[in-house]
Amino acid sequence: MKLLTHNLMSSRHIKGVVTGFPLKLTARDVKVSEVDFNKDFIVRILPKLDWEALCQAVESIGQGTDLPRSLDPDFNFEADTEFLKKAHHVLMEVEVVSGELECPETGRKFPITDGIPNMLLNEDEV
Amino acid sequence: MISFYGTTGSGLEATAAQEVSTLGADITRMTKGKVFFLCSSSSCPDLIKLKTFERLFLEVLCAFHEEMEISSIDKLLEEMKAVNWESNLKKWKNCRESAESSPLSFRVSCKVTGQMRKKFSAFHVSKAVSASIQNSTNYAVNLKQPCFEVNVRISDEYITIGIPLTTEPLSKRPYLKHISVRSTICHTMCLKAGISSGMRILDPCCGHGTILAEASYNWPACIYFGLDQDLEALKIASENMQSCKASTASLICGDCARMPLTSESVDAILCDPPFGIKHNCQETDKFLDRFLRECSRVLCEGGTMVVLLGGPLRSSFEMQLETGQGEGEDPGDRRENLRDFPHLVLKETLPLRLGLLDAILWCLSKHSGRGHVT
Question: What PROSITE patterns does the record point to (chain B) (predicted)?
């Protein structure tokens, strides 16, 4: 599971959960593999992300880079290739192979196995 | 300009014609499952990269019965006399990636359908055409591994003789390991969704991930999410993602009626919902309601949903359809939307066939705005 995926996942499918975002992430096994840098893609995708949630996720799996904790709305990231490459790294190259996602409201845990998070619920949870 | 024709799945003719037009080709004729066109020799090498055709042929001979009646094998052989095989083979080689070495060998394959079976036998046509080619060239017949094939098709509408540009159909993608939905249909769904760079695309019941794999191979600068409740299917999907080198695709095990996703988080939904086959009617409606509610929740304003519908699911969708007030100022402006989800507006439909089954593609767009039901 890439951190890009984590960024739009939520546990609001659990009965009673209002936001369910961001999910707490714990990693047992993290894989870093090289992916070609596509500047245009990163520039287009960044405004669609919740940056703070991404930073939390990066930290929680010990991939702490020197990313800014929040993005200034005036920050012209398009011109900052070094920043875009860092964003590319955490979004595209870091992958959680096994670990856990946790609902921030109920504490319900969801396992990540072979890179696939299992978000299925039992019947009494919906 | 050089004459070609291509075969398509039923219903995909116009999409295929549009796709080949992007190479600067002129469409000369369209008929059920076939598109005839002219292409400049400089664009020929790009033909085999087309994605919505089943197979492509260099046209050697084409006669529509209404224009030129060829009613017997002798008449056909008479027409074939004018064919210059050497020049055709030269054009054919120009469309191929690897050059064939001479001496050339060939095989004739013939199919006769409809009423024409009374006049022509495929066996005799093959034999006669084969002999005619051998007479006018020095090419040898090789049934097992020919350099090229001569494809003869006789239907109630036309007779075509062509040389297929590829040995395998174009629809058999080398980059897809497991094809569960026809690749040409997957591609059409992507085209209808208007995929462009930076989009977030979801298949909420992705199964083996064929649609996502086809999309991510051809539009790599997007993010893809595949959701399915079947972990075994996701393992196969994972292999597909690897074979097409989809570096921006993610798989999640989850229920499409309760998506573990934040609201307004995707720009497009591509989907071939499997339900309706496994569930009974009442359950289908209940499920459909949940499914559409979730799709409309996770879709961004202005986002597109392309869904492939067959069987009972199609009728359930059609029952939902009603005419509502359009977006424009004009009170007479009408639009078609879903009754229970009025901001899902029907933009386009495309009837097609899945093997023996009738199906339809629905392209919906999410427009909250004003449009209210009249």
Answer: N6_MTASE, THUMP
